[in-house]
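Re: the request from the purification team.
They wanted to know what the chain is likely to look like in 3D before they choose a buffer screen. I agreed to run a prediction and write the result into the notebook, where they can find it.
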Amino acid sequence: MLISLSGFGRRVKILRRAQGLTQEQLAEAADLNTRTLQKIEAGQVNIVYTTLARIQSALGCTAGELLDQDAVLVLRDSAPPAGIDPDSLSDGSHPGRR
């Protein structure tokens, strides 16, 4: 499975916001620097497995939910969290999907 950094970062951001967490709160829960989390969400930094594991543990989700676009797109079936544009949930890697 090939995943873009921006797609991964977008999914982290969506799941964080869905839980009502700020970047600072998630960074603290995942034992990360807030600036590092900001770079991850912006797709500007590659991460190692331990960082992935910390983020998924802090969000209470599986690594698959962070890595698999289809798992996150399930959020589209329900009302998206406040402030999230439902059309922004897809990273465009699947033809015909928005």
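For the purification team: The chain has one domain: 5-81.
Please add any questions underneath this entry.
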